Amino acid sequence: MMDTRKPVISVRNITCGYDETVVVKDVSFDIMPGEIFVILGGSGCGKSTLLKNMIGLYEPMEGQVLFGDNDLVTAQGDERNQIIRQFGVMYQMGALFGSMSLLQNVMLPLEEFSDLPHEAKTMIAKSKLAMVNLENALYKLPAAISGGMKKRAAIARAMALDPQILFLDEPGAGLDPISSAELDELILNLSRTLGITFVIVSHELESIYKTADRVIMLDKDVKQIVAEGDPKELRDTSENIFVKRFFHRMPSLGKTGQEVKCPVAE
Amino acid sequence: MSHRTLPDNHPGAAATTRSDVDGIHISLKGRLDALGTAFLWDDAVTLVRSGQHASVTADCADIEYMDGAGLALLLKLREEAALAGGKLTITNLREEYQQLINLTWDCELPQWTPKAKERRGFAEAVGKATEEVLLGLREMIAFVGEATVMILQTIRHPSQVRWKDVLLSCINVGVDSLFIIVLIGFLMGLIMSFQSAVSLQRFGGEIYVPNMLGLVMFREMGPLVTAILLAARSGSAFAAEIGTMKINEELDALTTMGLSPMRFLVIPKLLSALAMVPLMTIFFNMASLVGGAIVMLSLGFPLVTFTSRVFAYLHFGDFWGGMFKAVVFSILVAGVGCLRGMQTKDGASAVGLSTTSAVVSGIILIAFADGLFAVAFYYLGW
Ligand SMILES: Nc1ncnc2c1ncn2[C@@H]1O[C@H](COP(=O)(O)OP(=O)(O)O)[C@@H](O)[C@H]1O
Ligand SMILES: [Mg+2]
To answer: Of A256, A252, A255, A174, which Cα lies nearest the Cα of A220?
Structure first.
């Protein structure tokens, strides 16, 4: 199936890493409006690094990150702010501001960037928290709530300014199965009702099957995309050794003698 | 043979070798646990090493038991064989131990050699260190510059400042440290007056104690000690707070929300230090005068003698000079505290390092600046 719509994000030949070490090399992919796009791969393969380069926290060594027609890598000043305003980010550990209540956390972007009356801002913040089922914890401090609640609050904060795109870094990590399932439901709900595009970093197979429209898979040694497509299709039909190992939870084969080498998927 | 002995209840462990045309045959016997392996390690390794043959066969038929220690011995024998250009063949190993060995056998263990760490020449080491110092200095100057520009901007756009944060920080920097400032000021005034009074008494010069006290405190000690206390109390707190936020990705969150951490976190702290430190210095000075007054009273001088002599010799120039110093010190201390916080690397110990570094750099900066002030004031004739 060819998609004729314009991608919301195009990552073009991006190479990123730290100092001299390259973590992800020459990777390109497109993200379509409204889809739930998952970047997956084992721990340490550079998922978070790629994400942070995509949202402009780090400057990639090479390549472009196009939001529409604008390149975030080279954008400065107002152009950059305009791009940044299009998306919200949920960090791996929530990154809620510890000295503020949940309500204040969600209010913060509103206070900084909107001219609505104070009452309206409070109402918006409350409604966002209600969307993630936290209406009973509005005045709690982040330290006083559970891990799952923190992640949901972080999603509420990321949605404060009604962004078109949400980046989530390992939303399910460290959560019990129930909280994790609730989070999946929330993501599906938001995607269906608000049409938000999700870019999710994850390695939780269950959630991926449930939520993802399309995945790309990174590998630590190859440093590139080793597979791309629908997760269930990949699981059932792919002959790619990386995909098989990941989706069927096979331990690394290196130690039993069969050396693992595989061509990079195109 | 071995200088180690086995305890009585150990079933024993031994290694014997013979050489033939095929290479060295080493047969391992007994219980290769930590004790047994330690017992025969040196012998086994020396035997293989002195065998002068590349190819080594380890006969493991008589191994009763083997754990991680025995595995390490086999790995070591393999390494020795590899060093001699050959390889180790293991024979007759029981199935369960074969599995144990499979866990690591295919990994190439890096050889540890002391030479692996690159040794730098003296000149190179000095050069590297200088480069690091200069880079650090550059970063500091860039940071101070950015902060100064931002503070000047706040004068034009006061509404962009988060005044609530400034106020909270003022309470932390100012109100909460009032007690310790006043206490130290009082004690320093008391001790200095007392010590100088004891010395001057021999010449009948106690009457000059107030002159000295006022001048020393207002010009020098007041700003200096207040700034050092600020570095210890607030500089470290700034570094810890911002460092923890950095580790929790809160700084990243701010940046992707389009909020500058500089404006959001650093400026309120700098402003509060700027406002509070001169005030704290005044409190310090006054408390030290109270300490001095108590000494003079106890020596039998009336209070009015003390006050009139203090203020007769203390000019407004001295006062403002001290205040100016306090302002500069406060920016240095608060600035370097925030900078160290922002520079925090990953990991829990990183926050501790930044905190320490904030205090140390703060005090060094104060000392430098104070030296510069001494020279400048001298030439300006203040
Ligand atoms: N701040 C950093 N400095 C240097 N190397 C880093 C840093 N963060 C991560 N890395 C390295 O980059 C690689 C990818 O890390 P990361 O993107 O966090 O992996 P993932 O999120 O897929 O688990 C790892 O090898 C890690 O050691
Ligand atoms: Mg990660």
So the answer is: A252
Going by CA atoms, what residue is nearest to atom 19 of ligand 1?
A44
Q: Is the ipTM of this complex over 0.90?
A: no
Contacts of A89 in chain B (CB under 8 A): 252-253, 256
Tens of pLDDT, residues B166-186: 999 999 898 999 999 999 999
Homologous superfamily assigned to B2-102: STAS domain (3.30.750.24)
Closest partner residue to B256 (CB to CB) among A84, A94, A96 is A84
User: Which value, to the nearest 10 degrees, does the dihedral of the CA atoms of residues A123, A126, A130, A136 take?
Assistant: -130
Nearest to B214 by CA among B193, B183, B187: B193
Any idea of the CA torsion for B293, B299, B302, B303, to the nearest 10 degrees? 0
Which ligand has the shortest distance to the CA of A49?
A: 1
Question: Ligand 1: which residue has its CA nearest to atom 25?
Answer: A44
CATH 3.10.560.10 fits A1-86+194-266, yes or no: no
Would the pLDDT of A262 be above 50?
A: no
**What is the model's pTM?**
0.74
Report yes or no: B235 and B173 within 8 Å, Cβ to Cβ: no
The total number of residues written for chain A in this structure: 266
- Closest Cβ–Cβ partner in A57, A84, A257 for B252: A57
Q: Ligand 1 atom closest to Cα of A169?
A: 21
